[in-house]
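Hello K.,

You asked for the raw outputs rather than the summary table, so here they are, unedited. I folded two proteins back to back in the same session to keep the settings identical. This is the first:
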Amino acid sequence: MQLQLDEVRRLTGPNLLWNKPGAIVDVFISHGDGVSVVGCWQHWAGVILSEFGWQQDTTYRLHAQGANMALSAPLDALYTACGLAELAWDCCLAEMNNQPLPDWQHRLAELRLELAQEVNPALLSLVSSAKENNVTSLCDDDRVSLGMGASVSVWPVVALPKASAVNWRSFSDIPVAFITGTNGKSTSVRLAAEMAKAAGLVAGVTSTDFIRVGDDIIDHGDYSGPGGARMLLRDPRTDIAFLEVARGGLLRRGLPVERVEAALITNVASDHLGQYGINTLEALAEVKFMVSKGLNKKAVLVVNADNALVVNQALKTAKTLCWFSLDENNSLIKQQIESGGRAVFVRSGMLVYHADGRCEDVCSIVDIPMTFNGNALHNVENALGVVGLAKALQLPHDAIKSGLLNFGSNALDNPGRGNRYRVKGCDVIVDFAHNEHSVSAVVSMVNRMPAQKRIVMFSHAGDRSDDDIKSLTEAVIKLQPSAYVVSEIEHYLRGRVMGEIPALVQDILNNNGVPSQAIGISDTPLLGAQKAIKQAEPGDVILLFVLDQRDQVHQWLSDQSDVG
């Protein structure tokens, strides 16, 4: 049997294993019985917790590569909990390998000293009182806040007020929604914010690209985890919040907020499998549906009726559902209408919302800029989902329609997602698609657009397996372009050497019947974009999958634009 510790980390919110805060140990197990390993860890966790004087629970999840094992802990002792969980693993590892046990009593003595430095009774009292008074509290290592938006108050974690001195009636929540899924998350939060803006609200957005309040981008970077949510909800300007919650943040820490008014799950498709013990699409779907744990009693879960993985999970939940579909004859849509439930769908080219036995036309699909005259079916799906979300948040109908009509396919409204330029009499489409599901969706869109011929530039990150790169490249081939440009992305080599990925892609293209003279290589995405457009003639469509240098590519295309 081979056993290896992967990671020990804190769980700060409801998570995949349960709804408790605590510590989680990720381990790899090969050539052995995972059940016996988990049993041994739980035995030692019990011994150590008993000796430590803690009464806490343990749980676990087995998967093909190993196990995730967790123990619960108070919010003011999560680092100590990590030490206890790892110590239990060290003792388990020694026992399973028939080796001498570590001096766990000595380590416990050290952890008691660490706990004395970590405990914060004032924090536990404040958080407990907040729950009793139905007030949202948000905690991190440095600060604690009560309320959201304009009502928020924030204190240093070392200088908290007594719960009895707090005016609990002064705090209130703002409407908050989770948006998750494999693809379409960033587009959805931005579109939702546009609808809220049309309703006269200052919308806050967290995403994998930036954190924004109204039109003010606070910072660029990946803010799809709890840290971004706290920053946004503590901003007094925020009237309504749309939180993109990605797989990584959900698995690392759990939900960023324990109570929200609505959630949207766009879709589930293959991406990032093999991390944190998530090895199957079914397990990935379970991760996405973690957002349902944060829904309050009256909240609505908006789900994709055209995605089988989403459907399978949604049918297991008791939450209030709003189904969306490209097809009004989808059986789930028909059932929802018959029962008077919530649904969003396409009927005769019109986006339609149904609730309480009444259908309501929202707007024509071709009038929504991001759908590219209805050719971008993935963005039609995004629009459907966001309408369901906006309705769940009770945004006005006119504001929802205005948001759809005013949200553009440009680098200002939706940077990196279906941005359209006009250069040399050609349509140029720039997209960030980087997994097979999203690449196929964009290729399908471009294939629907009229073109003399099509040209494509694309890249792959080095942490993709050879099989993944093959699948992604074959998805690009479905565009049937006259020319391919394969770009190196040095920033994302991730263990590979320069030239390795372009050579692999060229072999894949050749094996699929693409002649070598139709394949070009570039050192960067910017040079690749320039090479692709140099080959174009008026009436062509050029598709650029830009995974790096997005700002540089945007600036160059803007400078070359036929408009202005």
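The second followed immediately with the same parameters:
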Amino acid sequence: MSPLPHGSLRRSQVVTTFGPGALMDLPTQGVLIAGLDHWGDPEKQGFTPVFEDRLTDKIAELLGRKPKLFMPPEASDDPQKATQGMRAWQFPGWFVAQFEDPALLARGVRARPLVSYRSLEKGKYRGADRKSHKVLPIRFVVACANGHISDLRWYDFAHREARDRACRRPLWLDEYGTSGDLSDIWVRCECGARQPLVIATQVQEGRYPLGFCDGECTWLGPTDRELPQCGGAAGARKPNKLLVRSASNAYFPQVLSVIAIPDGDAALRRAVDETWSDLVEADDVTAVGYEIKKKKHADRFKGLSPEAVWQEVERRKDGRPETRKSIKRVEIETLLASGDELGEDVADGDFYARRLPLPSPARGPMRVIDRVVLVHRLREVMAQIGFTRFEPAVPDVDGELALGVARAPLSREPNWLPAVENRGEGVLLSFRREQLLEWLGRPAVQAREAQLQRGFDAWTAAHPDARAKFPGAVYVMLHSLSHLLITAIALECGYSSSAIRERVYVGEGGYGILLYTGSFDAEGTLGGLVEAGRRIEHHLANALDLARLCSNDPVCAQHRPEQRQEERFLHGAACHGCLLIGETSCERRNEYLDRALVVATVEEQGAEFFVDESP
């Protein structure tokens, strides 16, 4: 195991890209990032503690314990300082020697030795020519849907149909052609046994060519396994699948994030706690209103309505538990329930926002917006709690991670988790609930939603391990509009589109879009988004203009989600020419998008939320 100094990675990459269990290529070998147990004591390593109660409370619900959060240290330019940071195991243990059989090469076949690390001499392969040759780690390993990963058993695979399965003569990797396609790659033993690598991907009648997973948790330690089997005592073993180490589906970190905002409910609970002896005798909202207006209580209940206080008093009298609210619901309710200002306007503050007065009467697209909030200071805290392979398990529309999702652990005992905080700015747009519900009731909208639902059903059938739920037409529309706004605002605000992130709110708490800076440095606080919020009518008009015609129309507008030829099941009228943006900016990995729900396209009319009222 070798150290990987944090100087080679940004803090955010440790959480969002290269956490425990991730695969990485070094100049001479491949490595697997080790579990947190092998990183050492975070306090002694100089990691910065991060505090955010809302986030740690949610993590406790998922993991059954409340871990501490630590942010990796900044890179050091001091060559004398001891190397600190994450650790990694050498993985995979098989290599392809950079030596080609000249006889086969003359026949158009690139044949190279496939060797184990045990056969190497000082990290190199000694061939039949008695010369030392460089080696590269093999591209292919095996993994399962539970995150377990291991080397492919190459001897067993090459001899799967041979009589002598105990043969251990040298192996070769033969490549026919230059495409790199699995059907052109064969594993061959010098005894004559050979198999095409594509067989490893062919599942027939429930028979899995690579067998079932043994539960190898290689990132936790070279011999670590999930006991008593893959999936645990109550779970079922998952089949092994061939995995390309550098493929985008090799590692999906599970990241949970919250916006650090003043908790209005916390202030309410604290005020009721301090005055409970007086409030316990109140029998209706009028009595509560009279009590909290008394001079001795007025400061405690400043900004709190008698109705909210009465609901809390009633709950306590009835013995009902506190209502568990989702991450996003707490955020949107706090933002929408505030007055003209929220938070403190101090230099090092976590949150400060001001409500922007809207023109009256509202005109054009602004008629569907009931509030614009300029967020001058904002702090986002993100923590990685696990990871998956093959299929991502992203938070749902409420910002929650499902309790039952099979996530691979970051350590044997998760006492701490890697986290990162981002300080920046943003702008929130809140939409009128009644107009959204009216739009949702139109037959054309319902027909379009049914199309998107059929596409989602087709995607679910193709991804049986996924546990996602269809978010509905309102979310798809707001999500699509959010992407359009990011593109339109980035043209003028001074930030690149990849530096702007989104947070879409859909539910009982309200409907809105929060665009905020996602940079982990000074670029996140330049003031460009707040200024863009002051000109939101201009940017909204530009965003809608961008949506009406895509450079790939009419092909883009004519796409149907259920079409199996393209397998873009989670897209309506959406492509790289109109809606798709950098995945670091999107909260749903560029899925659930359809501009036909935002404006009329050259193919679809009637389902749009923003009706073109020009003559």
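Residues 443-462 form the longest helix (20 residues).

Happy to rerun anything if the numbers look odd on your end.

Regards,
P.
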